[in-house]
Queue: 2 jobs
Job 1
Amino acid sequence: MADITAQLTDIERKAREAIEKADSLDAIEAARVKYLGRKEGQLTGMMKQLAQLSAEEKPKAGAEINRVKNILTELLDARQADAEARAAALAPREDLTLPARHVWHGAKHPVTLVIDEICEVFRTLGFTRARGPEAETEWYNFTALNTPLDHPAADMHDTFYLSPGVLLRSHTSPVQIRTMQNFQPPIRVVIPGMCYRRDPFDASHAPAFEQLEGLVVDEGITFVDFKGTLAEFARRMFGSSTKTRFRPSFFPFTEPSAEVDVSCTICGGNGCSACKGTGWIEIMGSGMVHPNVFEHVNYDAEKYTGYAFGMGPARIAMLLYGIPDIRLLYDSDTRFLEQFSGQ
Amino acid sequence: MNISYRWLKELAPTINETPQEIADRLAMLGAPVDEVIDIGASIGDVVIARTVSVERHPNADRLSLCQVDAGGEILQVVCGAPNVRANAYYPFAPVGSSLPGGVQIKKAKIRGSESQGMLCSARELNLGRDHDGILELHGDFTLGQQFIEAVGLNDARIVVDVTPNRGDLLSHWGVAREVAPGGQSDLRLKFGAELPAPEQTTGTGKAARISIRIDDPDLCRRYIGVAIEGVKIGPSPEWLASRLRAIGSRPINNVVDATNFVLHELGQPLHAFDLDRIGKNEIIIRRAQVDEQITTLDGENRKLTAGMLVIADGDRASAIAGVMGGRDSEVTEATTNILLECALFEPKQIRKTRTAIGLSTDASYRFERGVDPDTMSVAVQRVIGLIIETAGGKVTGATDVYPNPMERTAVRVRPERVSKLLGKQFSATEIGSLLEPIGFAGKLDGKELVVDVPGHRVYDVAKEVDVIEEIARRYGYNNFDTALLPFRPSGVPDDVLSKLETSLRDMMVARGFMEARTTPFAPAEDGDVELMHPLSSAESKLRRSLLPGLLKRVEYNLYRGVRNVRLFEIGTAFAPGSDRPSETTRIAAVFTGLRTPPHWTGDSGNQDVWDLKGLVEDIAAALGIGTVQVEILGAGLGKDYIDAPAWAGEIFGFEALLPATGFAAERITYQAVPQFPAIEQDIALIVPEALSSELVERTIRQAAGIYLESVHAFDLYRGAGIPAGTRSIAYRLRFRASDRTLTDKDADEAVGKVLNRLNDEHGVERRG
């Protein structure tokens, strides 16, 4: 027994020294095998010697061996945890400055963005959205809109004809007529859509372009409603400090007719190149619906009044995004389109 | 319309605003100004000089050596103009002065002779395009006086953009009436001579030896003819020439200039014929005859058609009525007797004629927009005065052929209608004070106002609402309230197709596509609806489909070095229809290149047909189309449309019709989430190439029993160990019961049935 005790003390001392010295995971594992290994372990070897002891001594010696084994196991575990921590601290880390994995980003067309924004503003002002055909008859495009075909006003529409009397609409205004034919007041609609004029492409013209029409008809609508609604639209669309100016103009299907200017979105009205130094930017043609138009759709012009307006989303997109040439909008160059991702 | 500021002030001396202030106010009155040009700004250094002598340059045939008196010592000037002569006045740029375009005049030696300044042409002074010679000045001048001061060109040109309804603003008189503080009562016109009262006639009349006849009084309402005999044709005096130059018009001779002057002053087009070249001493206003021709003043020989109106003499057409005079009866230097025409033509007729011959002139522009019938006799009086003042002669006869004097109808205006439309009350007195300055006269009749429309507005103001617009315009649009008043929301239902378009756009953008907007013009082979007058023969039709145009856009991008292209468009396609073409709204998309942006892990592949199939299925679901069958019709279809560079990857695309009624998915009803776990089994099958996976899958579904939850193919293999003409497809079957946990035994039984059925029906074996 004394022999065993002495051996045990010796093993414990040596093992403690070895564990102390082991400075790598490999060395720690080697120490574990040397002292606690199942086959060759010195402490395991001690267990085999128990058989030689008497029944009285056996439990004592066993307990003693276990005590040492627990101490060594604890020391080894602690040492291993230390070593692992040190190894982990030294291991190479993922370099998260490398580029991430992405998906492609799509983009709506800038003109769509503007149309959606305008429609959304008008939605908050009680408007719904309507549409109509792009191939129209002369009656819808001109006659019903109080535009005789031989009036100089027709000069303003250099139109694509498909056959005598049938044409590609030169403005979205024929949808005013169709809307009034199909519904009764109160009418508050915005109508975005494609229009066509025989202008070859240049920096500021396109033969096919978007227009956004608006029409309000009800009892009691006045010039003051007209001005108030469009001024409110301008503030919601271009910013709360936007000022509005109404200038007399001429459109056959409205009277009084007006051009609507907003204070320049670039310089705020001080004058810059975008507004040609005037501080104002013309954004739409508009006016009170002409009684002759009401007559064409069998509305009682004495009972109902209304107003209409039309603007060019492409022109507004050019203004808002600083696009210098309208052709960029219709080239479908992805290097242009991708700039509107996330808008 | 070009307006001379000084001319305007001469007509309305009460105007004391600057040219820019007038421009700003015109804009707010409905006539925006394109620009205000300070005419004298860049030629302020130029002075009046007289040539004392002109000799040929000793060393150059085409140059002259001039001794010039500019009010100081005599200067030697070398001049290259063919028209330079001794003892004439010219604009002179002395040494040290500058000219338009930044030209600096320096002392120079030209072919060995010293030159101390430059005699100037109209073009060098920015006063016109004329560069045939230097600008000779006519009249008496003080040598050395500032040129612009001496000729009255210290002036500003106001370029007014006049809307088609405001023909009355196409004259200085009309603009002055609009902007003078007191309106037309401020306007003054100086008459140089008295007009003998013309004989008023109907249908025919006689001016001196010329008889005048109107054949078609609907097209020519009135014709005043005045004969002036003994005129001496020559250059206009400088004050008159300068007025024309100030508005960008070129002086020609005193008689022609006088008619042009009155056109721009009063808006009445006038024409002067050489009285001695009027055949058979008669003027007939008639329709052109078939195959009739005329050489107009611009030297063009023009074929006339029966719809056109001409001024003819006894032999032939001598002017296209209201558009341009003829060369045969033109006033030339040899002319001594003239016949002045002051006519009133039907606007629509003039428009028809000038459109047909493709010629728009100052005269036709005004006739088309309506000339004031009340100004005609004033205009005649004014032009006679000017001609006698500048060319001498005397009136030997005048006639005024006016078969059916124009009737005027007064417009009745109800004050309550005014406030109903404008949202503001106006009293009759207020309305009067707004409209009287521009020539309207109103009187009360009960509660209504009876408004007399002046001649200069009869073409534009005919109804109550026209007068209401004038009230609003003269009151000032910006003086009305701008208030957001209560409104009733729209009774028009929201367009359902727009909603669908928006959701499709969102979907495509989320999948990395960029929205294109292309024009619908297509080459002949890609459309069925023809344009009558296409912009180019390469785009003569309207597209029947969006895809060809989009493919062209892919090509556009590829040739700009972009390899990864993903474009979509939502737009209209056209097909022949009954009264007009039928239209369908479509979505189309095209794509080529990598599935995801390139990544350093190297795990992004090229998009392929499975990406296309997935996209098509998702779009179909969004459009409410139940099942989609995708078939390969042939490779290289897009090659017909696109010439892709060799390095370009495969290009994929689809097009789908949007239902006109829109589509919104049905509202979902909640289903209980599974309570018990699922069990999965994989089976690999040897499937003949001729047997579609779809059919295998259908058989599995039919045989697997009620616990089968899903089946999907997860692997495909061809090659070693698999017999030729077959492939191995592996399917994962998932089973689940709603009331208990399934065991392996349940799954084994189901799989066994599946394998048996596959073998029975299709001879398909499990892969060993």
Job 2
Amino acid sequence: MELDPDISPEELEVFLEEAEEQLQLLEDCAVRLEKTPESAERVQEIFRAVHTIKGSSATIGHKDMARLAHATESMLDLIRKKTLTASPQIIDVFMESLDALRTLKDDLAAGTESGADLSSLISKLEAVSAPKEGPSEDGNEKMQEAFSLNEAERTRLQAAELKGHSPYLVEIIFTQDSPLVAARSLQVLINLAELGEIIRSSPSSSDIEAEKASFYMVILLVTEESIERITKVVVRIPGVASVKVNPWLDEEESVSTVGDAKMDERGADKGQGGPERRVIDLGPEARGRSTEEMLDMAAKKMATTSNTVRIDVRRLDNLMNLAGELVIGRTRLLQVGGKLDSNDRKAGAVGELAETSRHIERVVDELQEEIMKSRLLPVEHVFNKLPRMVRDLARKAGKEIAFYIEGQDTELDRSVIEEIGDPLIHILRNAVDHGIESPEERVERGKPATGAIRLSARNADNQIVVEVADDGKGINAEKMKRVAVQKGIISEEAARTLSDKEAVDLMFAPGLSTADTITDTSGRGVGLDIVKAHISRLNGAIHVESSRGVGTRFILKLPLTVAVIKALLVGLGEDIFALPLISVTEVLRVEADQVHWLLDRPSILLRGSTLPLVGLDEALDLPTFCPRNGNRRLIVVIRLGERRVGLMVDFLIGEQEVVIKSLGGYIGEINGLSGTTILGDGRVALIVDTEALLRRAMALQGEDSLLVKA
Amino acid sequence: MPAAERDAEEQIVVFQVGKDVYGVSICHVQEIIATQSISRIPLAPERIKGVIDLRGKVIPVVDLRQCLGLSPGDSSKSTRIIVVRVKENTVGIVVDNASEVLRIPAEVVEPPSRVLTRNQTEYFGGIAKISGRLIGLLDLEKVLGPSISDNHATSASKGLVGAPT
């Protein structure tokens, strides 16, 4: 399959993106159409989406895709006009063509050819549709695939139409042995140009000059001449074997020209640099309506159409980077301002500097927030493919499940959105396979036969909380412990001292599966260790709450932004470390006599329970420094799930928002550190990976680490 | 560098580390800055002294002697950091002074094996004898270590964390 050779990689990229959007929309609508096949709105949406795919694939020259889309569109058109009802068989055929379109698009993206049998599918589509229309119109429709006008061309077409001209599609075939096809083609263009305006031709005049003429030529001409006249003019050119002229049916007639004309008449805004004109495409429904109706539709459409702009994600990433730099810069500015202020109050310039830096601080803060927001997408993007998946899984597992979604508008940074899809799928699979009981079991237990799974997303002070709750059988803590001991993940004694809550956390250990049968949907083990690793990579956290017989709830906490986190800056010797505030619960100062020693390990009593202590340098495996504070110890309590550890540090600097910078490819990954950040004074602080730290700390304690490394 | 020029002569930046004199091709050198406080990275490979902040970017800084497998020398005189760019990596090298840029004609460059022992030769592209001095021309890719070419494989710290360096 060959594309138009003029297509640039960027155009291809845009096509693939748009096609993906349309295909997703179609898949979504398809499911809904199954439920409400009479919904005219649904059909309209689908029709439009297929129409768009037809147009853009024709533009890039993907003939197969365009043909398939065209056939599908014809069928949908009949459904739309109520000439055909969307029976289950029809919907099946539609689904088939959807799958085929997707295959074609995926092939294009991957550069492969899966050789789908399109001709039989297209025949099926055609057979299902009404009997074929007259040959000339059929041919006309085929030709219309090739011409999907861009904005400029459409404008010219409309301008000509306003003058009373009509568009025609002129098809020309040159004799096979015609030697100077290029010259003939140019002659055609020149002659036709005298009759009116050529909106577009294939091959175009630049193509012809580049020796890319062909024996077949199609031209979109707007003229006030008649079909006979046009035909006569072309036939006169030597080398022309046949010519067909048909009226051109532009399916996307825009109404704006009419609207604009009205505005001009009113003349109110003329000459005053009036409001920007927008071209509003009302689509095929606009045909046949009165001007008043059309204006109404236009107004409604304007209200609902959002002003959006496509932007390459890399640009957003760059902006994010720059915003981060600004944050660092403004912190420095503040510091400098602070230094001057205290030394020299007299100079008026110092006061100005302080004011200016405060102003810049406010602007930078706002800018950073805006850029961060521009990267936000509603979770809907991830959530919308889940209902279908849950339904399929439930059917396979023989369970009845009602799936509820809340908070689809909650917004997340787009990179986080990309990453939570998989974890959510894992968790949902778990809930369907192992959480919700079979209908019989449920009834036995006095529960309704239909199980419920609820997926919700909400904002909670600088975090997004996503929950997956089910009313299934809950997690069997005892069983967890048993299996964990069996698999050697924890020892017998450790298992005995585990609370139920901690036992439930064992779910996240790799290699653990309490399923009696390993179903094909869940695969081996539970995969939750991967989920957890995924989530912590995003600087988020995951907890699980469960009650035997009642249900289970997975709670995912995700940061609003990936590049900046709130951290607690602490110092150890000459080095500065940043501890993500999300993991810090409190900071204490203790005296030497409050520290208890057992088996060479220090700990303190904190509100009745033991808090093990570990030096930050110890946990990070650094050469230990002598603590500056003599007998006093500064403890930062960090918490991960149920575990807490007190990190001993030398001094506190304070809370600060830090911009996360990676360690860079050269240094690579360092266990215990998750990145670096540049402080206001130019020093580099190391951002600590609290989970790794915790694991290290517990290993030092000699405990079986429950948070086993994936 | 275009082939024609390669045969003729190379421009190198000459610097000293302790008593040794080295040179690196100027096409790798991004800039030379005064030394600044280097923040240590615990648990990083030995040869990495730490990182510095270079106009908002976090740049790793290496100890050249460690890279060459020598014992760390007396670092008290180190006054400059040469920032080099090798295969998408920006790395700083701590040196004692770096003041010259010399044009080295090909004739004065000898293969390293003539002057050095077997296991040291891999770090050098050649030895230049000029104005009575021996300048070791470093092959930065070898000196800076395997992670230079392997940059894309090692995921920098935690996955999608924030701003690229």
